[in-house]
UniProtKB/TrEMBL annotation:
Domain of life: Bacteria
Biased composition (Low complexity): 213-224
Protein name (Swiss-Prot/TrEMBL): Cytochrome c domain-containing protein
Keyword terms, alphabetized: Heme, Iron, Metal-binding
GO molecular function: electron transfer activity; heme binding; metal ion binding
Compositionally biased spans, kind Basic and acidic residues: 315-335
Region span, Disordered: 197-243, 313-335
Source organism of this protein record: Corallococcus carmarthensis
Keyword presence, Transmembrane helix: no
PROSITE patterns cross-referenced by the UniProt entry: CYTC, PROKAR_LIPOPROTEIN
Cytochrome c domain segment(s): 457-562, 575-683
Length: 683
């Protein structure tokens, strides 16, 4: 650990007044998260803009952009090493850009896995760790790559779980914690042997702890939808709510390294088909409203912003999480951590879509950047109550508006300023202390423009609508969700929702020519895109009937969402993939999955309807069948089927293959299935 000049630090005006005291700071602590980072002396701010494919360099003293460096496609995150070397993950380019301080060009571009995102530099500066969403060999799992910063070559690549995203180093770099984005969990990696890393723990009991048995004796919270056995009588109380963490975008460490924090969204797991929170829905109620952790009194809907705390003093990070049905810490835990639900202090000012976060250098305050509500929440990192907080029921001290679509934050090392990048309007907000007794923050000066729009004007407007949990056209304060609350990043959340017509998995919208694939919805009940959008926005999200212009803007953005990167796209087929392509036709898969969008847009019954259990497919749906989904990018969209019951592509193909109901598969061998999966992953 390194010792900061805490006496001097506490004497100056930091961003938020706190009773800080002298403490040590771990060499693995980072003062930045997401799309921005600062040079070691805070003189330069580095900003990655995914739309423009650049790293912008800002002189912080002059508040002026002084240069930009062309990096790889869709740069995602940036970090700075101890020697001031800058590293950028190029999510669309399977690479990391390396830029030396003061240079206006890349020093190198290092190949890594598919869709690299999180990155961290070891305290000694010798190793760069890069988190890859998928590997070049498999779309079903990601990996962690270690790069020698001296030679800029990969030392090793360690397979991890599905869609890993963020990384935090622990114990002076001897361990790493990696977040799984859609699963909402953490993998722990042993890095003590520089050449032989090992996965110490593939996950935690986070979601079990968040859904403890009710102390009132009501029993366990419901299991995932596909595992339920006994139907509920119409109008009966469904019992405790249950929630699952999703969208674990990053991991951030407290300065002393004793705790990690993970921004998440909590998604409702128990059925929405019956009463909500023990009452029958009133006419005009929005389906997504009133189902948030802690009950409807907190505001918000069935997707809620959250923050998970992990204690790092055990062998692997241990989740310290509230019981989300009763909304309080368990008896064995002291409430010396933020509430797991981060409720807004104001009913009329939503807080949604956590995208980045950082703990200040005193360790007392945490800054949570919320992309869907365009604000930054400041909250204590080691307590959840106090007279200085904004309101009862919320751990937030202050909620500060910034620009559109913020996705990164960096704090100066003296604690005096914070910089937030607003990705949708390509500007930087500078936050400083007001200087009053309370120590609230305000935004200083005009926002600094970093770049311009590359999307069409319609798509630019559509993106803001798609990601907005504050625009009254799209939602209401009592629901406070956006399209992106379920379609994470315009893709999917891996979640199965308990709708009145049955279990429904969130489908991906990315790169699937969605607006050209009418009819819409799993049951194909909407022939026009506008009808589908209005029904979703008005009846579920609490928004308004959408006019043609709003629908056109949303459609323009949806069609502009890039497809997930694919290591096999535009590459010659391997022998296995070529055999799979032939089997795709032999099994008549192309009868339904045809055309450029790989769907003929018709309804079919492939034998996957849920006909028993708590949540069954409605009779009317079974009668008309389910709409054929596109297979574009299918390798990155697990789990599969409308009810999410197939965890992998192979599991889907093997289950019921003898019936020939989902393709002519009865005569295919297990080896044939492997070849077919290999081909599907190229689509």
């Amino acid at each position: 650990m390194r010792r900061q000049g805490w006496t001097a630090l506490c004497a100056v005006t930091t961003l938020v007044l706190s009773g800080c005291k002298e403490r040590e700071v771990a060499g693995t602590w980072s003062n930045a998260s997401g799309s921005v980072a600062l040079s070691r002396d805070d003189s330069l701010l580095y900003v990655v803009d995914a739309d423009n494919g650049i790293l912008a360099v800002v002189d912080t003293a002059r508040r002026e952009k002084v240069s930009e460096v062309r990096v790889g496609p869709r740069p995602e995150r940036v970090t700075v090493g101890p020697d001031d070397t800058v590293y950028v993950t190029n999510r669309g380019g399977k690479s990391v850009s390396v830029i030396r301080k003061g240079d206006a060009v890349e020093a190198a571009r290092v190949p890594v896995g598919v869709e690299p995102t999180g990155l961290a530099v070891s305290p000694d500066g010798h190793t760069l760790y890069v988190v890859n969403s998928a590997t070049r060999e498999s779309a079903a799992r990601g990996s962690l790559t270690a790069i020698d910063t001296g030679t800029l070559t990969a030392r090793w690549e360690l397979p991890l779980g599905e869609e890993p995203r963020g990384i935090a180093l622990l114990e002076d770099g001897r361990k790493a914690a990696v977040s799984l984005f859609r699963q909402g969990d953490v993998v722990t990696v042993d890095l003590s042997d520089a050449n032989q890393p090992q996965v110490m723990r593939g996950g935690t009991d986070l979601n079990t702890k968040a859904n403890r048995p009710s102390s009132s004796g009501a029993g366990m919270a419901p299991s995932p939808l596909v595992a339920m056995d006994t139907p509920l009588p119409p109008g009966s109380n469904q019992g405790p709510r249950s929630f699952r963490a999703r969208g674990m975008v990053d991991l951030l460490s407290a300065p002393d390294g004793r705790r990690l924090f993970a921004p998440v969204v909590w998604s409702r797991e128990d059925p929405l088909a019956g009463p909500v929170d023990g009452r029958s829905p009133n006419p005009g109620d929005s389906m997504y409203g009133g189902g948030t952790p802690c009950g409807a009194a907190a505001g918000g809907g069935v997707v809620a912003a959250g923050l998970v705390t992990f204690d790092t003093e055990d062998e692997a990070p241990r989740p310290v999480v509230d019981d989300l049905d009763e909304c309080k810490p368990p008896p064995e835990e002291k409430p010396d951590y933020p509430t797991s639900l981060i409720a807004s202090p104001s009913f009329t000012t939503p807080l949604q879509g956590p995208a980045a976060a950082v703990v200040d250098p005193t360790g007392a305050w945490l800054f949570l950047v919320n992309q869907e509500s365009n604000n930054v929440a400041i909250l204590p990192s080691w307590r959840r109550s106090g007279s200085d907080l904004a309101g009862e029921g919320s751990p937030v001290r202050q909620l500060l508006d910034v620009g559109a679509g913020p996705n990164g934050i960096a704090l100066t090392r003296d604690g005096r300023k914070a910089y937030v990048y607003n990705a949708f309007d390509h500007t930087v907000s500078t936050l400083v202390a007001s200087g009053d007794a309370r120590g609230d923050l305000h935004e200083e000066g005009e926002r600094l423009v970093i770049a311009g729009d590359t999307l069409s004007p319609m798509a630019v407007a559509g993106r803001r609508l798609f990601f907005s949990a504050v625009d009254e056209r799209m939602t209401s304060p009592s629901v406070a969700v956006s399209c992106a609350s379920c379609h994470l990043e315009g893709r999917e959340d891996g979640h199965v929702w308990g709708f009145p017509d049955g279990p429904r998995q969130t489908p991906s919208l990315a790169g699937r020519m969605t607006t050209a694939t009418a009819p819409f919805h799993w049951s194909g009940e909407f022939s026009a895109l506008g009808d589908f959008m209005s029904a979703t926005v008005k009846d579920r999200m609490g928004g308004q009937e959408l006019d043609a212009d709003t629908v056109a803007k949303l459609g323009a953005f949806i069609d502009a969402i890039p497809a997930p990167d694919n290591a096999f796209r535009d590459e010659p087929l391997t022998a296995s993939q070529a055999r799979g392509a032939a089997l795709f036709k032999q099994a008549k898969c192309d009868t339904c999955h045809s055309g450029t969008a790989l769907t003929n847009n018709t309804n079919v019954d492939v034998g996957t309807f849920v006909r028993s259990g708590v949540l069954q497919d409605a009779v009317a749906v079974i009668q008309v069948g389910l709409n054929t989904p596109s297979l574009l990018g299918v390798g990155r969209t697990a789990p599969y089927l409308h009810d999410g019951s197939a965890p992998t592509l192979k599991a889907r193909l093997l289950n019921g293959r003898e019936t020939n109901q989902h393709g002519m598969t009865a005569q295919l061998s297990d080896a044939d299935m492997d070849d077919l999966v290999a081909y599907l992953e190229t689509l």
